[in-house]
């Protein structure tokens, strides 16, 4: 059974810092990995999706890397801002006939102080 | 706005009540999903519908009954729930259930069972 773990569970940083969120998964037979952002009381917003054949994806100040063989992904946020405060979720989609089944980690709660 | 709407946003119900959650997607997608997000637990997939046919039931108790009358609407009918069913229920949609398709999430319904 696929398990996804995110470290740290919570992170508090001053504005302007570069930071790294970590995600690990137990079964490397994935189709893709996705990073989401969730604001309090709201749904999920997709940030980056990395296919299993890719090593990284970038969007603005965000960069996500994937090392499928070791079961790890990192989300790098450059020059953090208070507006980045949210919960960040990592999810993996298995290969084969999975009917879109995503397995999520518990998330990292990020707080960026002005 | 993600294009996926959910109503109601908040619901309080007693254990003997019957209520329904509604999800609507305006993205022209063919697949829809129900997820449950409990406190201190990862997001869990409950049901998957593809072209209005249920293709995944992730061992969900029968007190949760999904319905997908067309590709744009998804309901979750609730009856005789337990306090441990209190959670955020998220709906999502995607173009298809294959690995390449991203899921887009609604804002969720916060359910409290008293």
Write the SSE topology.
The complex is a heterodimer of chains A (114) and B (114).
Chain A: E1 4-7, E2 10-14, E3 19-25, E4 30-38, E5 44-51, E6 56-59, E7 62-67, E8 72-77, E9 86-94, E10 103-104, E11 108-113
Parallel strand pairs in A: 2-11
Antiparallel strand pairs in A: 1-3, 3-8, 4-5, 4-9, 6-7, 7-8, 9-10, 9-11
Chain B: E1 4-7, E2 10-13, E3 18-25, E4 31-37, E5 44-50, E6 53-57, E7 64-70, E8 73-79, E9 87-94, E10 104-105, E11 109-113
Parallel strand pairs in B: 2-11
Antiparallel strand pairs in B: 1-3, 3-8, 4-5, 4-9, 5-6, 7-8, 9-10, 9-11
Description:
The complex is a heterodimer of chains A (114) and B (114). Chain A has strands spanning 4-7, 10-14, 19-25, 30-38, 44-51, 56-59, 62-67, 72-77, 86-94, 103-104, 108-113. With 114 residues, chain A is mainly beta. Chain A starts with a strand and ends with a strand. Chain B is an all-beta fold and 114 residues long. Chain B is built from no helices and 11 strands. Chain B has strands at 4-7, 10-13, 18-25, 31-37, 44-50, 53-57, 64-70, 73-79, 87-94, 104-105, 109-113. The chains are: A mainly beta (114), B mainly beta (114). The A-B interface holds A 4, 31-32, 34, 36, 41-46, 49, 51, 89, 91, 93, 95, 98-107 and B 2, 4, 6, 31, 33, 40-45, 48, 50, 55-56, 58, 90, 92, 94, 96-108, 110.
Distance between the termini of chain A: 41 Å
Could you estimate the helical fraction of the residues of chain A in percent?
A: under 10%
Mean pLDDT of chain B: 91
Largest interface, counted with CB-CB under 8 A? A-B, 27 and 33 residues
- Counting DSSP E segments of at least 2 residues, the number of strands of chain A comes to 11
The run of helices and strands of chain B is EEEEEEEEEEE
Structural class of chain B: mainly beta
**Which spans of chain A of ≥5 residues are poorly predicted at pLDDT below 50?**
none
What is the alpha-carbon Rg of chain B in Å? 13 Å
